[in-house]
Amino acid sequence: MKRHVLTALSVATLLSAGLAPARAAFGPITQISLGLAGAQPNSDSSSPVVNADGSAIAFISSADNLVDNDNNSAADVFIVDRRDGTTARIVGPDGEFAVDSEAPTISDDGRLVAFVNDGRLKVFNRDFGVVQDIVDLINEPYAFSGNGRFLAIAAEDEQQLAADDQNGVTDVYVYDRLTQHFEPVSRPVGDGEADARSVSPAINPDGRYVAFVSSATNLVAQDDGRDTVFVFDRIERKMEAISGFGANEGSLLDATISPAISSDGRFVTYLGQDSTGTAGVYVRDRTQQTTMKLGISGPSSPPDISTNSGVTMSGDARRVVFGLLGDFFEDVYLFDLNSATTIVVSAAVGGGAADGDSVGAHISSNGRAVVFASDAANVVSSGPDGFTMNVFLATPTAPVCQPGDVNGDGVVDAADIPALIQLIFGGGA
């Protein structure tokens, strides 16, 4: 399968001093949180997530007019299927949930949606319409593997999901839904337990690599105990420190923000700060053992990176999505690593500035869909009132074809060379 990689040209561009990447709009925006017959929701919607190809979107809403017979006066999980144009609400085996649901995530194929209700992690199977209870007292966020078999979670110490859990801190586990087994992840390789908490896991689609944040000093040798991103290889049983290798790079910006990992586990992106306290978005190449700070442009210099959107990455590691604070509002941005371009996602119709805050962004694995929540009224042509938080979907504008742009990504760069060879000589991609 063809995939984009970080080319030598894009790496050089990212690291070159003095370059100010251009800003452009990502593409058209569609409102996803709509009531019956297209009515505007009568309450807020938030926390959107999207599956791998952008065909299914799950989010939280306290509106009671998105579907019929919503009578529980609580926030529920809703699923919009873009293929068949339907909106569905998740209810329990006994009917509506009595308390708020929160923190949804979705499998790559869109069949499974995990969420938290009354402190308990649950999984909804859309094929069978059933809800499975998983575990109590988990920390948010958590993550699905691609097909939903594995859940990477951070569990409170009193859970004691492993028989020998005696360290009294939050640990990261992988739950296998097939075997119903909890596998400890945030442990020193060999023996013992972590000496400090571990949180905010991410997992790649096949479930082999788990990235997480920990302040433990004993997961790898010579760790100073700062909040650090780690990756654990569940096949080779290897633990690797990811953050702290960039020039002057210091501790994480916020340890509650999950890192993001590419589909093959090679690239990890995260929020961090340098020795001056300036925040940045970093990408670690685990194969080349190099770290890049993305050359982001924004409304301020240096860019004021927000923790309200976290950081997510497309499966091929080409596109990274994050939030930036402006003079008045917060917006969602995307950085394209092939073209070293900062792109505004939450733009107004026509490309102007949004008139509200846009947060909680998430990019699909294929990089062709970004979902976010916003109380802006002008990111679509009509509908939102400018007060209610709604869920929106942004899809990229088709790139303009230009001579030399063989792979069709909108830029002429070194990434076109393999595509040109393929075009001339054929063979496997």
Overview of the structural elements:
The strands form seven sheets. The chain has a five-stranded mixed β-sheet, with no helix packed on it. Strands 19, 20, 21, 22 and 23 form a five-stranded antiparallel β-sheet that branches. It has a four-stranded antiparallel β-sheet with strand order 2-30-29-28, with no helix packed on it. The chain is globular. A hairpin with a 4-residue loop joins strand 17 and strand 18 (238-241). The protein has 429 residues and is mostly beta strands. Helix content is 4%, strand content 39%. The longest helix has 10 residues, at 416-425.
Q: How are the SSEs placed, and which strands pair?
A:
Blueprint (H helix, E strand, L loop, with lengths): L7 H8 L7 E3 L3 E3 L13 E6 L5 E6 L14 E6 L4 E4 L11 E6 L5 E6 L2 E6 L4 E7 L1 E7 L5 E6 L15 E6 L4 E4 L13 E6 L5 E6 L13 E6 L4 E4 L7 E4 L7 E2 L5 E8 L4 E7 L4 E4 L11 E9 L5 E7 L4 E7 L4 E4 L13 E6 L6 E5 L15 E5 L21 H10 L4
Parallel strand pairs: 1-27
Antiparallel strand pairs: 2-30, 3-4, 4-5, 5-6, 7-8, 8-9, 9-10, 11-12, 12-13, 13-14, 15-16, 16-17, 17-18, 19-21, 20-21, 21-22, 22-23, 24-25, 25-26, 26-27, 28-29, 29-30
